[in-house]
Please model this.
Amino acid sequence: MTTAAAHYAATYDAALQAGRLFDHSQPGDRWADLAPEFRMEPGRPLDPNLAILAGYLRDTDRLVDVGGGAGRVSLALASRVAQVAAVEPSAGMRAQFVSARDAAGIANAEVTGDWWMDSAETGDVVHLADVTYFVRDIAPFIAKLHNSAARRVMITLWRPAPGDTDRFPRQILFGETPPQWPGLPELAPVLWELGLLPEIRPLPQLPWWLPEAAGRLSDADATQLVMRLLESEDDAVRQNVAANLERLFERRADGLTPRWLHPMRENLITWETGGRRLPQ
Model:
C-alpha cells in the first residue's frame, strides 16, 4: 500500500522530471533574480489573508518564518509579535529582507541562511508560505516544523499551486496534461498520516502575484497573460492563443476574465502542537 508521503514524493518527482519544478538540493541561488519582486513594504496595511494569520499570533510570540524570503509575511507581522526569526537559504532573498527591515526601522527581526532541515531555530509559532511545493521528503520536514513550534504551526499554499496556472491553457492549446506540483491534495493526507488533524482554511484574497485573476482584460492583455504563463514569445503560439480566447476566458461586456484563475485561493493549514513531539 502506498503511503501518503510516498505519493507526495512521486508527485514531486513527476513534476521535477517534466521540468516543472527546480531542484532546491542543487547549488546556486535560483531566487536571486526574483527576490526584488517578493519585497513589500512592511508597514503596509494587512491584506485580508495576512490579517487572518495575525489573528493566531500573540504579542509575546517568537515567530519563526521558514523560507521567509524577502520578509513579505514576517516583516509585515513583526509589530504583532515579540521577535521574528526568518530562515532563508537564498542570499538574494536575505539581502532584500535586511534592506526592507532596515528601511522600515524594524528592530525585532533577524534572518539566517540555513536550509530549514539544518536550522536550530525554534519559536512559539512556526510559519511558512509557498515552501512545501519544493520539498520532496515531506514527512520529516513536517515533523521538524511541528517539533520546533512550542504552540502552533501555520502553512500557507495556493490551490492550484503557482506552477500549475498554465495547466488549463496547455490543455486547451496543445492537448497537454502536464504533471502537477505537489499541493494541498497531496499534503493534507501526509498530515493525517502523521496523526495531525489541522484546520484547513481557504483565505479570501485572490493571488497578490497575479492581479489579472480579478481583472477584466482586453483581448490583447488576455493574450499576453497566457503568453506570460506559457513563457513563450512564439508567434504561432500567440496566434493559437488569440484563436482560443473564448475557450480560455469568459467574455463579458467589460472585458475578459480567465476561466481558470478566479477560483484560485491561498489556503491556511494550521494546528496546535500541544507539546507532543513527532518522530523525525
In short: The domain at 4-163+177-207+265-272 is CATH 3.40.50.150 (Rossmann fold). The chain has one domain: 4-163+177-207+265-272. DSSP finds ten helices and nine strands in the chain. The CA atoms of residues 49 and 204 lie 6 Å apart.
